[in-house]
Amino acid sequence: MHEVSHTTTLLFAGLLTCMVLTLALEEKIHAKKSLITGVYAVIALLAGAAFGVLPFGEVQLPNGHHVAMPVFIPAVDWGVITIILGASLFVDAVSQSGIFTWAAIKLTKASGGDPFRLLVAYSGLTVVFSAVLNNVTAMIIVGSLSAVSLNKLNKKELLLGFLLIEGLLTNVGGLLTLISSVPNIILGNLADIPFMTFFYVAAPYVCFTTVVTLMMGVKLFGISPLKDAEARVEAEKLVQSFNENDGIGNQLFFNVSWLLLGLFCAVMAGASQLPWVSSLGLGFVAMSFAIMAMIPTKNQVDKNWAAFDWDLLFFFVFLFVVINVAEHALVLDLIGDGLSGLIELGDVLGGGLLLWAAAIASSVTDNVPLAAVLGKIIAARPDISPDSHLWWCCIFGANLGGNFSPIGSASTVVAVAVMHKHGLPISFVGFVRKALPFALVHVTLATAYVLLFLV
Question: Residue 346 needs a FRET pair 20 to 30 A away by CA distance; which of 194, 221, 290, 413 works?
């Protein structure tokens, strides 16, 4: 804790706002996201040093040791960075065996070539993967499958709708269990919510909202079922002509890749219960499996590195730096103080406004420190019980706010990166325009659910 003047806090809040606005003008200024956030990271660090808000000096590690390092190194959430790097490399490496093409063709055949049925299947996979793995990994895997399937069906024009819906559903699915997202873990532990209680409360909302999201996606993106009998027959003939074994070059590599994928999902889901692994984190798991997956093509590893989206990775690195400096400048405390005032307005009005305010705040800041700030505010109030609905207002708001903007959550950033990878140009503003109707419905449904059933 340190003293920061209110004027300084407002200055850094303005800097954070300017960064968001500049990202919104990404297409106009012809600059990559990583360069934009990089410029603001440099400005934020210089301003942080000039105004004395940064904690220079040695860093104390959990084991009690002190290490001297640049102040911007601990500012970065290296767990998220290594998950993105490791999961992306892993998926790219195992995809060379043909397993994703094989799985995509199998799912495409099962759908009969009907885009709507395919969307339902991939949406279900997204929610399940987001609940048991993490949002970033879920988006990378399901996004890859969707691209292969729609390309085989000659329906690439539907890929934008598929990827957007999947990106939004990662944040919805991230509500399903206590361990699905970091805000869930922080707020759930502070409120002492049991694992199964969390699931029982969140599951009805997640299931209903998934269905509503699919219905909206079908209408807004024209992903409708095949109604004409002749069209269904032609689609069925087309998918039956696909051979899922065409992309398999080496059967041993194919089998090993399935084994690695199964182990990857199992270890990611149960990492918190595994000795040693729980201490090393999910980033270690992702990187370890990436290394193992690249062993069969060890003489072509340079191609894996070259194919990686480094713009995405450095965008996150610089974004974490800017947000961390803003946190030291007490910008998040300023947001938290504003949100705490909403609690005084009563159970219904205060709770509803708190949920919306948390969602809007998390759309432009990291929802992890925001959840921590909100949790501390609520836990410090003796008049709020552990089973208060206000905890759920924070949980729903912190998770769903990521759907308002392409920088609101790691999974929406990854979703946009996958879109660009497959030649689908979508700007910051373009994403907001397409995602806003979904985000508004998601938060409105959450508000009604919490205030009608949990108060």
Answer: 194
Using only C-alpha atoms, the chain has a radius of gyration, in whole angstroms, of 22
Q: Kindly report the three-state secondary structure assignment for every residue of 218-239.
A: HHHHCCCCCCCHHHHHHHHHHH
pLDDT at 62: 67
Q: Please tell me the distance from the alpha carbon of residue 417 to that of residue 406, in angstroms, as a whole number.
A: 10
DSSP letters for 282-347: HHHHHHHHHHHHHGGGGGGHHHHHHHS-HHHHHHHHHHHHHHHHHHHTTHHHHHHHHHHHHHTT-H
Residue type at 192? D
Number of Cβ within a 10 Å radius of residue 448? 12
pLDDT tens, position by position, 28-49: 788 888 899 899 999 999 999 9
Distances (CA, A) of 383 to 62, 81, 227, 344: 33, 39, 57, 11
pLDDT number for residue 169: 94
Chain position carrying tokens 């759907």: 403
The residue with tokens 């400096």 is 325
Contact criterion met (CB below 8 Å) for 408 and 402: yes
Is there a contact between 115 and 235 (Cβ–Cβ < 8 Å)? Answer: no
- Tell me if 88 sits within 8 A of 139, measured CB to CB: no
What whole-number distance in Å separates Cα of residue 388 and Cα of residue 356?
17
Pair 212, 218: CB distance under 8 Å: no
Residues 6+ apart with CB under 8 A from 391: 187, 190, 191, 193, 378
Helix (H, G, I), strand (E, B) or coil at 59: strand
Retrieve residue 376's tokens.
């501390």
Task: Compute the distance between CA of residue 417 and CA of residue 189 in angstroms, rounded to an integer.
Answer: 33
Q: What is the pLDDT of residues 183-205, one digit of tens each?
A: 887 788 778 888 788 889 999 99
Mean pLDDT across the stretch 135-150? 84
